[in-house]
Design a protein that fits this description.
Layout: E1 4-10, E2 15-18, E3 24-33, H1 38-46, E4 52-60, H2 61-70, E5 76-89, E6 95-110, H3 112-130, H4 139-145
Parallel strand pairs: 4-6
Antiparallel strand pairs: 1-3, 1-5, 2-3, 3-4, 5-6
Length: 162
Amino acid sequence: MNRTVLIGRLVRDPELRYTQGGSAVCTFTLAVDRGLSKQKKQEAEASGKPTADFIRITVWGVQGENASKYLHKGSQCAIQGRIQTGSYKDNDGKTVYTTDVFADTVEFLDSRNDAQNNTQANNYNSVYNSTGSNGKNNTEQNKDDFFEDDFQEIQDDQRIPF
């Protein structure tokens, strides 16, 4: 059985091409963390060794068009597919071996833009909640008033609710 599941982030924007027959083919490189322990990761980084694998992904058809449209550099995605190996002769006559993953499904998990939007929203909320119109710190007041309007204490009859 030849099945693989990978989760990682795109190294660069996907490239979309069309075959002479009109089929869409999208290629991109996925950086997949090796899952090292914190100590081993620090040791590898200190010695200049990689802590992630960079895997070429190929997606065909409508999935490839969607991947090209919605994925960008830094986007996180999960792919399911198969591994395919091959080889070719380069200009110097040397044999180059290749390993690619042909994706059957691509799931969009997160993107760098979403992360930036969330960061901007969190920064706005922090500023909004911490200072009021008079410039004073309102964080404590907001915490105290949070449940004041709609909070009702529930009577506990000491029974398990299930």
